[in-house]
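Cross-check.
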Amino acid sequence: MALIAKIDPPLSIDSDGVALIHARPYKQADIQAGEEIFVWTSEQSGGHGLAAYGIVQASRIESFANKSGQGEHKELVLDLKITASAPQSAMNIEQLASNRDSEDAAPEAPLGKALYKHALNKITSIESETADFIRSHFKEK
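Predicted model, tokenized:
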């Protein structure tokens, strides 16, 4: 199964090609090492859309202080081995907007729906057809 994470930019990748992201999982809290993941940086927060492709190396739950007040909340923290840090072909939310409500525009429609529907800093699973579509943006055309 493939995953997509919509996060605040920037995506920081260390010299070993590892990125650490944290987000709240949507419908799937049990993310395993070895799973394929695409990283999307939110354009509304200064990102550029599709940002990276990688493999989950480790996952764990950690507590974070609430930004809007007292207390804390739990988030899923992932260590990602980034295998491609920039797509060969850019993809952003504007390119998906016209298809997000379409029933005929697979695989763009499910991807557009997921990215519009989910709040920032969320991780969700995606169908294999959608993953193939995103993966194609990392290949030479």
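The beta strands are 2-7, 18-25, 36-41, 49-65, 72-84, 122-126. The longest strand covers residues 49-65. Passed to J.P. for a second look.
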